[in-house]
Design a protein that fits this description.
By secondary structure, this protein is mainly alpha-helical. It contains two helices and no strands.
Length: 65
């Protein structure tokens, strides 16, 4: 196959695959966004808590050393 035919086939296949995409509804997008934001908040609070505890431990070791 020459290059032009391969490029043409690529775009034809890409167009066919694009037609198979199932886009989420507006409600699904909003729900998924809320889930992501809540999980980011939970993970952020967890990391902040671990950081605070580790900071206290390091300060305690350095003060008593």
């Amino acid at each position: 196959m020459n290059l032009a035919k391969r490029i043409g086939r690529f775009f034809k296949d890409m167009r066919g695959e694009t037609k198979k995409i199932v886009w989420p509804t507006r409600k699904q997008v909003i729900n998924n966004t809320i889930v992501v934001l809540v999980m980011m908040l939970i993970v952020g609070i967890f990391i902040w808590g671990v950081d605070a505890i580790m900071s206290l431990l390091v300060n305690a070791f350095l003060t008593n050393a």
